[in-house]
Amino acid sequence: MSTAIPDLPLLATDDSMLSRKFGREVANYFSGSPLNRVSFLRADHAFLNAAFAHPSASFLLLDNYSPLAKDTTTLAYASKEDIVPLTGPEPFKPTEEEHIKSFNSAVTQPIVLFMGLDEKKTGFQYREYKGNPYFAVDVTPKGSIVEKAKSVIEAVKTKRGVSFIPGARLLTLNAPEAAIYAQARALLDWNARNPFCGGCGERTMSINAGTKRVCPPTDLAGVPEGAEPKKREDCPTRHGISNLSFPRTDPTVIMAIVSADGTKLLLGRGKRYPPGWYSTLAGFLEPGESIEEAVRRETWEESGVHVSRVVIHSSQPWPYPANLMIGAIGQAAPNGETINLGNDPELEDAKWYTFDEVREAMGASSVGFGEPVTEKRKLRIPPQTAIANRLMAAVLDGYLSATPKM
Amino acid sequence: MSTAIPDLPLLATDDSMLSRKFGREVANYFSGSPLNRVSFLRADHAFLNAAFAHPSASFLLLDNYSPLAKDTTTLAYASKEDIVPLTGPEPFKPTEEEHIKSFNSAVTQPIVLFMGLDEKKTGFQYREYKGNPYFAVDVTPKGSIVEKAKSVIEAVKTKRGVSFIPGARLLTLNAPEAAIYAQARALLDWNARNPFCGGCGERTMSINAGTKRVCPPTDLAGVPEGAEPKKREDCPTRHGISNLSFPRTDPTVIMAIVSADGTKLLLGRGKRYPPGWYSTLAGFLEPGESIEEAVRRETWEESGVHVSRVVIHSSQPWPYPANLMIGAIGQAAPNGETINLGNDPELEDAKWYTFDEVREAMGASSVGFGEPVTEKRKLRIPPQTAIANRLMAAVLDGYLSATPKM
């Protein structure tokens, strides 16, 4: 689940200098997408229009974040014909400028997200960029598109014999499709959470094929057909570049903290964890803080343990709803290992576990977040799909030893 | 500027296991704050009230993001008396619940941000937490507080003989105060950019001493004194935890890309760089993407170069307005070094420079973003305060060599 993904074309051979020193790069679950996002083509309506129309295009449908899937391991895709009743036949035909001019705040806009080109599959080509196009479409029934969305959902289920798999903590998908789902879920969620402008309070609209939201200067709501659109008040997001227009990702630190003597790991237990579960500590990074500082602050706040050095290990997209998990390994200060849960009472418990105890938990079958506990064990840890598990594994594998790993 | 900060108490001795393998942890400019944020006390009005009232409290004032400063290297602080005309004598006296009930969307709320305790300076104590309290206050004249803010600004300048230093790219402050400024700037900016709720379009209010914004369920605007506040429509951010309530930080990747043979560095030139300037490539991380993937995507999109392994080096808060710079070192794939600026035409130029050329630029005096160019040189690079410079230095220092440092 978390080894380097073998068919990622850009991963070099093992004898590169970096791998000599650092071992194989760790690609965690939800990363390793097979798609080239070609992000610079998202404002090119001719490209989007051609990609949307091409018979090789795949459409991942999400109903309230549940993806269309064959089963819990494999996604299913719709075709253009399936979604045209909702999106219209040529949603990318207008230029972006025309699209913004046509903004009508009373009409719900179905989000059609362009995700990228799968360069392993050839069929579609635009300029020098080749590969089958992937889109994601939000088919959640809401606003003025309730009925259309419902009939698209029913039709695709009947026609294809597939269903929408509840997406909450969906950690069973095959790795490349997990990355596709993560991208779709995170961006559709961001669009759904931000219908209004934080700068002026007016309704915003989706542009750049689902990857940007703007606060249009005019609105056609309530305007008779053919008449000029209503002008809206000035908005600060229209002056220069505003980060409010772009998707939000929340950096989160997650850390395996090793005792000063390098023999134990600090694990904590959240209040809603399943019985027996412990995991690495984690928390949101704050403004004006480095990753390394956030690791020290969160560890001390949650457990009372003082951390000295911190090294960043790897990262994991976590689309619930929009986190970037930044995995780090830190070492407790020699006199800073006393556990104190009294600062920020977020954890129910925190403990130092010996490497052997963690190794035993690692060897036993992992248990998912919602799965029932069927056997008694001293310690249960998250599955390999979680970066928490990979950080613990890195420590047990000798990440801290002075000998470079391959 | 970017070495480990010597008085940071939690940095361990150099013989820790991590430092044996990885060398000293790199603390970049804008990190290394001397303040303990004690973030769990931000909702405790008794703590905030006591800290605000304590004679040891320092107040950093920002006028339109320009901080009160003695000169371009040293901040200046106001006292409680200086800012009471704007904030009132006890802004934290009400509980958070009372504060939310008193919400009036017609009244501009001056943001009083609690930043943390400087544990090196004793005087104030609350429970077991000791240290002088630091606040930041947004004194930008705006909304219903224009006149009060203007008189606070004039009074403090006259009384203290200090001024507000324009904060755009302020890279001359001493390192600990740069971190304090970064925290203040990022959070005041976030509050100022988000007066409205992205979920429902209504006005929001600041709570948790400037570190959280909520969409209150009621509003006193236009309500006669003593009458019940107006109820507002339901808002999705009031159900469970919403990331829209918390500060936004945008993860950004910045990368020193080394040629496959380990002898050259890839540097690019933005369209608005000063003459002769080149720097490492950089770009925003996208939802559903790992740091390592973002490094590969951005490098290919901007320069055409294909990157194989990526290792994360260190991080830097960058408060313009709210970026987290995540510094990485990557290696080009053996057959992927051809430069192509035609994908995303963001760069004016990109080039492979030999280590010697970069070393020469590194040795010469650095030139700041706005500084005039006074001598002819082949290559100019950003100063040591920029993580770009530190990434290049790490490569030149043999970060990629197989021999562990220290």
UniProtKB/TrEMBL annotation, chains A, B:
Species name: Xylaria arbuscula
Keyword NAD: yes
Protein name: NAD(+) diphosphatase
Biased composition (Basic and acidic residues): 227-237
Segments forming domain Nudix hydrolase: 247-375
Catalytic activity: a 5'-end NAD(+)-phospho-ribonucleoside in mRNA + H2O = a 5'-end phospho-adenosine-phospho-ribonucleoside in mRNA + beta-nicotinamide D-ribonucleotide + 2 H(+)
Biological process, per Gene Ontology: NAD+ catabolic process; NADP+ catabolic process
Top EC class, one word: hydrolase
Gene Ontology MF terms: metal ion binding; NADH pyrophosphatase activity
Pfam (any one): Zn_ribbon_NUD
